[in-house]
Amino acid sequence: MALSLYNTLTRRKEVFQPLEPGIVRMYSCGLTVYNYAHIGNLRTYIFSDILRRTLEYEGYEVLHVMNVTDVGHLTSDADEGEDKMEKGAREAGKDIWEIARFYEEAFWRDLELLNIEKPKVICRATEHIPEMIALIQRLMERGHAYETDQAVYFDISTFPKYTEFTRQPLEQKVIGAREEVQEDPQKRHPADFALWFKAVGRFKNHIMRWESPWGVGFPGWHIECSAMAMKYLGETLDIHTGGEDHIWVHHPNEIAQSEAATGKQFVRFWMHGAFLVVGSQNGSDEERRMGKSEGNFITLQTLLDKGYDPLAYRYACLMAHYRQKLRFTWESMDAAAAGYASLKQFAARALQVGGEEPPWVQTYRDRFRSAIEDDLNMPQAMAAVSEMIREAETRKEYGVLPALYDFDRVLGLKLREAAEAAVDVDAVVKALIKEREEARKARNWARADEIRNQLAEQGIVLEDTPSGTLWRRIR
Ligand code: AMP
Ligand code: ZN
């Protein structure tokens, strides 16, 4: 089978082939670093990590680029409101640059804990202002942008394809814009969007500011992704990812800016992760997107504080398809933690028992591969994993670790580390286990139980099986 991926551009699954054989150019919209990432944000990065690992599993080299939004993202995704970064810093009473670096670091730590591979290139918006200015100039020269007293805008009337991506009439988008907003009276069309904000009017005191041909100011949010993606990956990318909210504003704007400037297709495959939602606070069934508002803001640290393994959250995400909304509850988190624990427990057992790979494992290898190749169908891939385990347990044939480790290149659940850590005990413990086996043979149950209890106190559990006594460290 071939890898097929759902492309938001065409609204269907398509067979994926990169432009250049063997190499995939992929860009992911990064975090806006005015606060910690919530587990909804992290779901989107787990999705792009699964995508990247699947491409690598398929033998591609993936040139993965991710930006860090440290300027320009306003409190609405469009041109209204204030800069999220400036607001975050003011509310925390901290220096804005300090805030940006602090939350960026926290984000890298989250990604590491979730075993998300670090992108090959990480680019901060604030370090690419010249590239953004150059792109805006190019748009100006080609007649796609205009300047007002307050800003420089992209002129959507010059890009007739603008509504193709959202498949929504422009009127709908304009109606969506809020009324009370201090509109720029010189803006030609309400749906035109800012490429550059001048440090005047509502942005007079904007702290992050740079010189530009249009005066001192700062870039709009969308331009950063076009400028940095094209700088590191060229004018046409194979894949661009983000959360599903970006389908409506951010990504159509990226397409408009990039394609108007180059005359080329910007992205061949657009892929979007569905949102993580939570029940509302008052206990009703109404679902709300996970957000950074109070009472609705769960971070990875929240999960750690409650004693969850961060990879149990990754496991929870793997149990839903990336295009399906995922409803977060503590019950589902507990179920994921239990599922992950028993997967690790099986891996530890298989490591101790060992054995040749039985021929029936091939069916599961095939099933796993077709599941991931079918638009990253992880629930199906996970079903293949658990059925393989069940069959191994039933047949008492445990030579499935090579297959499990192979699947884990995509799952990213650190099964090898977990299995090795679980069976890693010192010589004293090994001697005790041996002594207990001998005590059992001699029907000295008292001594055997004594040793079992002694080891249990050290967090080592024993299991007597036909293949001998197995042990497992549980803490
Ligand atoms: P931001 O920090 O707002 O730029 O968002 C970072 C990423 O998280 C973007 O790709 C968003 O689309 C995504 N995102 C935001 N909220 C959620 C959510 N509740 N569930 C999944 N992804 C989200
Ligand atoms: Zn972006």
Describe the structure.
The chain is an alpha/beta fold. 44% of the residues lie in helices and 16% in strands. It is built from 16 helices and 16 strands. It has a five-stranded parallel β-sheet with strand order 5-4-3-10-11, with helices on both faces. A hairpin with a 4-residue loop joins β1 (4-7) and β2 (12-15). α15 runs antiparallel to α16 (445-457). It is elongated and about 95 Å long. The relative contact order is 0.12. The structure holds adenosine monophosphate and zinc ion. Adenosine monophosphate binds at residues 29, 31-32, 40-41, 43-44, 69, 242-243, 245-246, 273, 275-276, 289-290. Residues 29, 31-32, 40-41, 43-44, 69, 242-243, 245-246, 273, 275-276, 289-290 line the site of adenosine monophosphate (AMP).
Unreliable stretches, pLDDT < 50, 5 or more residues? Answer: none
Number of E-state strands:
16
Distance between the termini: 42 Å
Bound molecules: adenosine monophosphate, zinc ion
Q: In what order do the strands lie side by side in the largest sheet?
A: 5-4-3-10-11
Estimate percent helicity.
Answer: 40-55%
